[in-house]
Amino acid sequence: MTIDRRKFLTTAALGAVGTMIPLDKEAEAGNVSGYQPRFVMIFDQNKCVGCGACKEACSETNNVPAGQLRMTLERQSPLDGTPGNRKYVRVSCQQCSEPPCVRVCPTGAAHIDPATNIVTMDNDRCVGCKYCIAGCPYNVRFINEKTKAAENCDFCLHTKLAIGELPACVQACRYDALIFGDANNPNSYVNKVLAVKDTVRVRAMLGTQPNLHYIPIIKKGV
Ligand code: SF4
Ligand code: SF4
Ligand code: SF4
């Protein structure tokens, strides 16, 4: 199946927040009141070469101040000692379905968008108390130096999904290391990948129900 990596989504105006919600054609056709999407991102460690294009695209798209990041890549040790044989891990908000950051926010600034179920921010309500930062077990939140509000990767909810595009990092990745879509749509590509690939989630035992999945690297010669 060929996927237009820039605009495989169509848009449908939905929800009380007035956000343009991306839905693929199947989901849109089947969309009835009460439909609950579950957007998931998959990072394939086997395909990531650590080029950093995702990181740059994220910062530019979301106007992240220099020196701050919504996402980064951690380079891990070589698997077999071979120089250059590195592996990378994406570090960003895990988009928990049970997000501690939302639970501890006293103002409702950190919240789950009711139309998409994506964890995002209402900057106007943020008082900078940092409770959400302390409450996040993944250490991926920060106070944006410009806005003075807490920030997390929200799958580009307002900057890309709102105009029917894939998240900036997914668009920027030329190595197909990032997959994004609605896991609750049985016809979505992401749903099919989750069905056939072994994926792992970080600290899922905490009950946070992260929606960032990882396809771990396949060790050569094992
Ligand atoms: S753009 Fe893709 S290959 Fe490059 S670092 Fe990001 S995820 Fe890895
Ligand atoms: S990873 Fe942290 S910031 Fe993201 S939803 Fe979970 S608790 Fe909130
Ligand atoms: S989904 Fe958007 S906000 Fe999240 S890492 Fe990718 S580009 Fe950044």
Explained architecture:
By secondary structure, the chain is an alpha+beta fold. It has a single domain, classed as Alpha-Beta Plaits (2-Layer Sandwich). The chain has 6 helices and 11 strands. Strand 1 and strand 2 form a beta hairpin. The structure holds iron/sulfur cluster (3 copies).
Note the topology:
Elements: E1 10-13, E2 20-23, H1 25-29, E3 39-44, H2 53-61, E4 71-76, E5 87-92, H3 100-104, E6 110-112, E7 119-121, H4 131-135, E8 142-143, E9 150-151, H5 168-172, E10 178-182, H6 189-196, E11 212-215
Parallel strand pairs: 3-11
Antiparallel strand pairs: 1-2, 3-10, 4-5, 6-7, 8-9
The structure holds iron/sulfur cluster (3 copies).
One iron/sulfur cluster binds at residues 93-96, 99-101, 119, 136, 138, 140-141, 152, 208.
